[in-house]
Amino acid sequence: MTSTILRPAHMLFTEPIVGCLCAYAAFNFGLIYIFVVASPAAYEETYGFDLVERGLSFAGFLIGTVVAPIPVIALDHFIYRPRLERAKGRSHSAELPPEQRLHASMLGSILLPLGLFWYGWTMRPDIHWVCPIAAQGVAIAGSLQVYIVANLYMMDTYGPLFGASAQGANSLTRYTVSAAAPLFALQMFRGLGIAWAASLLGFCSLLMAPIPWILFRYGPQIRTRSKYPAGD
After folding, report:
1. Arithmetic mean of pLDDT over the chain
2. Is residue 19 part of a domain?
3. Per-residue pLDDT reduced to its tens digit, 143-176
């Protein structure tokens, strides 16, 4: 009860790092399910895709999912690990602050709204269908970069014990949002129109985009006030 229900819920509402990152991850996870439901219908209405051709609307998912880990791995290899080695060269017990993990999520926070606005305003009959598919790939890549790094950051911040509870809070929020997203996705796109529905998602992503940047700058001060130190 404590480790799987009570502690994750308590961390979600009392730890700013957990609360902010879980909200961001939940939005990103819900976005995937919104696209799964609404995107095939959007291509049908805009470009007249039949059932088989609507499968092309998931090409952006595939591209974005394949591309997303590349910057995460590259930044880890070329920035995080060299800095870690230099820190260990000065002291064998030295560790980098968890905020050094956030570089890829900072990149993803830019790509996500860019992809969403690009998708919404190029989904038009006079623009080739490959353009919104590419935009969708950019949005998914940015979304996954934020999600991957958020998990790494929370594990580094809270350690193996409390980090698992932070992951539990993350699962609670993202699965709740992803369960609700398909219930309104199609209605939202048809009611607002594709451009403004995607723009609404883009504005939401812009509101949350500063989260990794703020944590990169003020994370150390926030961690000093945490009730769940990584060493415990």
Report:
1. 91
2. yes
3. 999 999 998 999 999 988 899 899 999 999 999 9
Report the sign of the C-alpha dihedral through residues 28, 195, 186, 135, in that order.
Answer: negative
pLDDT (tens digit per residue) in 10-23: 999 999 999 999 99
> How far is Cα 39 from Cα 21, in angstroms, rounded to an integer?
26
Whether 71 is in a domain gets the answer yes
Question: Which residue segment(s) compose the domain that 216 sits in?
Answer: 2-224
CA–CA gap between residue 196 and residue 210 (Å, rounded): 22
How many domains does the structure of the chain reveal? 1
Q: Which residue has the tokens 């509870």?
A: 165
Sign of the C-alpha dihedral computed for residues 217, 202, 152 and 85 taken in this order? negative
What's the pLDDT score for residue 5? 82
**pLDDT tier at 92, thresholds 50, 70, 90:** low
Residue closest to 143 by CA, chosen among 213, 59, 217, 69: 69
| DSSP-based helix, strand, coil % in the chain, nearest 5 | 85, 0, 15
What is residue 93's predicted lDDT score, i.e. its pLDDT?
Answer: 57
Burial class (CB in 10 A: 0-12, 13-18, 19+), 164: middle
User: How far from chain centre, in Å, is Cα 54?
Assistant: 25
Nearest residue to 118 (alpha-carbon basis) of 53, 63, 195, 190: 195
Give the domain CATH number at 87: 1.20.1250.20
In a domain, residue 217? The reply is yes
CA 182 to chain centre: 18
Q: Which residue, chain included where needed, has tokens 């990584």?
A: 230
Q: Is residue 231 part of a domain?
A: no
